[in-house]
Amino acid sequence: MKKLTTAAKNRIARDWSEVLSDYTIIKPLHWVKRYGPLLIGVYMKPVYGGEHYVPIVHTHSLMTVFPVISLVCPLPMYDARGREESISFIRHSQEFQYIAAAFRSQYSAILTEPITYAAMQQWYDASIRSATDYPVQAMTDAVLLSWWCNEMQQAEALILSYSAMIAIWPAAASTRFGGSAGWEQRVRAQANHEQLHHTATAELTKFKLDTLQDYGLISSD
Length: 221
Hints:
Shape: globular
Structural class: alpha+beta
Number of helices: 8
Order of helices and strands: HEEEEEEHHHHHHH
Distance between the termini: 53 Å
Helix content: 40-55%
Strand content: 15-25%
Number of strands: 6
């Protein structure tokens, strides 16, 4: 088998753009949609040496300075057996209507429904607690989102919960950011509503996404 050609990638992008009609393609096979201070992304991740791709849904927070659009809280599309859905170009060409229908079924919330603060926090928490790595960025994003939405008590609860998790990580993992105390200090330093809004605006400009439509984030109120 061969890597996806430019023509194949263009066909894949064209087909998926019809499914992701409210999303903006920012680079080959990567789409985003803005919900307040967050981007929800869909990335066709190359696998098997670039011969297949796996649709990955992810988040990216605009509330912290980051050099690239990150793939935080990644959710791969799954097949009927619960395995990552690896798609070759031949299969894409022959079965895309079925692949798209399965994607719509699994991820209807990011296609047809408003995104709520509560839903995002559930997404963050589930990803953090099931992570096989050390999801410090997702922890930070979850806390900052609570502050953005004026959920102060929830933010404090998350800091306590995630600090306890960080405290039991191996030293090699936690020392990069000063352990639980260092992480808490840095995340609290960002607990300024004006600063969060300023950062989000600056990040959109940096990534040349300041013209993106904001579909808004529904608070829990």
